[in-house]
Model the fold of this input.
Amino acid sequence: MGLALAGAILVVAAVLLPDRAEAQFGLRGGPVGVARFAVGHVIGLSRLRHSRMAVRGGRYRSAALRSQDPRGADRSQLSNPYVMRAALTAQAALAGWQGGRRPQGWWRHPDGSYGWVGPVFWPFAHDDLTNAIIFGDTTSLSLYGYGDIYAALFTPYAATELAAYTVPQGRRARKVPTAETLCEASDTGGLPVERIASAVAPNEAQRTALDELSSAWLAARDTIRTACPAQTPANAAERLGLMRERVEAMIKAIDTMEAPLSKFVGLLNDDQKARLNAVANERRAALASYQSKNADKNDIKNASKNADKNASKDAQAAKACQADYDPVSDENAQRQYEQLIQQQWPAADIATTLNLDEVARARFEVLQDTTLRTMQTLSACPTEPAATPQARLAAVKTRLQTMLQAVGAIADALDDFQTDLSDEQKAGFEAIGPKRGA
Done:
């Protein structure tokens, strides 16, 4: 209910956000940018609600991260990847956390999974690339953005909690996976070679190219693993640095895949290309069917009751994504929006707690505004995935490059903000996250 309420507030605020909020918060793209951010997250909430409820209900549990693909070694046997992701990352993320019973909303993705697990950013990075490029499923990839950058600035972990992921000690060592273990266990999926071969029936030359592509896919996985943190990040600047290294590794991994993928697809005839592209369509259809069959009983019971509401939300979301969309001003919606931002960015409290002077306050506002702009730059309206693997690869690379630029800009703004801060003030800034997570 909490996530649903937050999503509803975001939609209302986004659709009705007036120009004054744009001036106050400096959001590039103004109300339209925030509207599209909200639309993306609410669609994510709707699409993945059954997965989240399954995790909450305890129907999927894992004793520990295992050295195997948690989604199933044979991807032709479809499991619900969102449920498995949420179950595994929630368990691993909360294993070393002492902040309270319920993690804060900025730390968790709408599907119930976590973008940060201890010091590891984007634990299922390689799997997400495979799903997006081969299967045309960008659901998990699209959830990464503003919230993860915010978590890098204000981590809910205390230093000792983070340390448990790199140097586990005592009794807790049994419960907290090391960063290395987490990186190994979450990124073990390779290219679904046999499924592709079954679809396209390759000849000898095509099979050789497919094997070369598989080798490149594994090399890409190893590239991403090299960006697994070896030590605990001490502060926000180091967390942003780790985030940048991880995204850079993903871009490098894509570069490794690009030429072998083009070579393999280039050897296929038109009929084989159509059958390869059908693999993505079949997966999406199967997943939709899986989620429909496993819908919560209450959802089924109230399906007719909620049908009109869902249709209205879908229409509202579609309207907000139109290029000429202009949100209508509403004072109540503006107050809700400003309250939402104030909850995440208690600027006055931070300034008072850290005893910031006017210059530091101004620099902090720049940091806040720079981070808030990622709501628009890293959140796009839903679109149909590109028809070919090469086009999907290019789209994923563009998305990652946009994220890399955003992280770099925020890192620069953070550096400017902290330039003249004392050690005591810097320590106070680092303590904000753990205090709010308690």
